[in-house]
UniProtKB/TrEMBL annotation:
The keyword Nucleotide-binding does not apply. One of its GO terms (molecular function) is hydrolase activity. This is Glycoside hydrolase. Coiled coil: none annotated.
Length: 425
């Protein structure tokens, strides 16, 4: 069970709750998140941290979400889950056919909740923005949209469809959401720029999904050694990837880079954390074809509290992403770890990383191989990159920084709610 808390009445950063409350009243929020909540992957992590920040501000959140997900215990949060649909036990990252019936149930549950309780505002994530537009219009309350990605780009990068008509339809819906929302939170500079191109009137706020759970325990040496033994890693260096195994993550490039690295460093091992069983089987077959299956370990999805141990196990952290423009959430955790980062030099990553904090290489198998060999050959350079990344993360991407940014955004949005209440009175 996930458990986190905030000091009552004040932020950790020292900002008082009363600054963003509506005339001393707690803001009651209906949040709609069409995600398996909670699961160890990007969007659910981001939603969790945004909820945690809202609760730290003294607000309350009722969350409408899928029936799938681990329990979460956060004082001030109530979770309303859709009824289970027979045969749907998991939801893949990005768009999928399973989302259509699940999203319909999410909307109906949100509609019932709006009819049975009074909320000050609606917060929505991803495609639920369309639900927020409709519910906001029906019930006359403000709508804040969290824009994690450009939905039309997402259905292309995830290879859900390449049909031009469907892509245009999704792009139209995305523009409608941004234009009709009363505020938009973009999760990286590129998404903020995309949102600004869609509207001249909707307030656009930008806050990176950079919150890192700083309450996770420091891994014990024996726990690190136990994983090393369980995975039969020997004493050689470990190159670690965490995240989903979707096509845009560049896992295929990473696997094709391993033979060249293994030739120079035969004792090096690659550990990949995350992904579904079918994806793991597919990539393992590819590794077997290349003759490097003994150098790679797929461990599947792991609980959040195990991640510090895997990070401590690693000598190099990998982000081989090859598509998309939104920033991978893993980069913030990578930076905080103090371990050297090897990443592809594409815009989604350079919004956060630079040559000062990571080794950036072309998004090719050759580039990833050369980068890995360079870091393994020069431990001093690797240590310096890791330390610079850690210091950069402490200054720019700590939980306190995330909370301060969230506070300013919610204060601006809440002040608009107060002004609207005043005009109505």
């Amino acid at each position: 069970m996930l458990l986190s808390s905030c000091k009552t009445g004040t932020f950790w950063s020292g900002i008082t709750v009363s600054a963003i409350q509506m005339k001393g009243k707690t803001v009651k929020i209906l949040m709609i998140a069409p995600q398996p909540f909670m699961e160890e992957r990007g969007a659910p992590f981001a939603i969790y941290h945004h909820i945690k920040a809202l609760l730290c501000m003294g607000h309350t959140v009722d969350l409408i979400t899928y029936h799938i997900g681990k329990p979460v215990n956060l004082p001030g949060l109530r979770i309303f889950r859709t009824p289970a649909i027979p045969g749907i036990h998991q939801v893949k990252v990005g768009p999928s056919m399973a989302k259509f019936p699940l999203d319909l149930l999410v909307f109906l549950l949100a509609l019932v909740q709006m009819c049975s309780a009074r909320y000050d505002c609606i917060h929505t994530h991803e495609e639920a923005g369309a639900m927020g537009v409709l519910l906001s219009s029906i019930f006359g309350c403000k709508h804040l949209y969290y824009m994690h990605s450009d939905l039309s780009q997402q259905i292309v990068s995830s290879e859900f469809t390449h049909n031009p008509f469907l892509i245009r339809c999704v792009a139209t819906i995305q523009r409608l959401i941004v234009r009709k929302a009363h505020g938009v939170i973009a999760i990286c500079p590129d998404i903020a720029s995309t949102a600004h191109r869609m509207t001249e009137t909707t307030p656009i706020y930008m806050i990176e999904n950079s919150a890192v759970d700083e309450n996770l325990p420091t891994p014990a040496p024996e726990a690190i050694q136990r994983i090393r033994q369980e995975l039969e890693l020997g004493t050689g260096p470990v190159l670690l990837y965490t995240g989903t195994l979707e096509s845009y993550q560049g896992i295929d490039l990473l696997i094709h880079s391993i033979p060249a690295v293994h030739k120079r460093f035969p004792d090096a091992s690659y550990v990949l954390v995350g992904g579904q069983s079918a994806q793991i089987e597919q990539f393992y077959d590819r590794a077997r074809e290349l003759g490097i299956h003994d150098a790679i370990r797929f461990v599947g999805q792991r609980p959040l509290d195990e991640m510090p141990t895997y990070m401590a196990l690693a000598d190099i952290l990998l982000s081989p992403r090859c598509k998309g423009t939104n920033t991978p959430l893993k980069l913030y955790t990578y930076l905080h770890s103090g371990k050297p980062i090897l990443a592809t030099e594409i815009y989604s990553q350079t919004q956060v990383l630079s040559s000062e904090t990571a080794l950036l290489v072309p998004p090719t198998a050759e580039g990833l191989a050369q980068g890995a060999i360079e870091l393994l050959s020069d431990p001093h350079q690797a240590r310096m990159l890791g330390e610079k990344g850690r210091l950069f993360a402490q200054e720019h991407y700590s939980w306190q920084v995330f909370l301060k940014k969230s506070t300013r955004i919610q204060e601006a949005f809440a002040s608009d709610l107060v002004d609207t209440t005043d005009r109505a009175a």
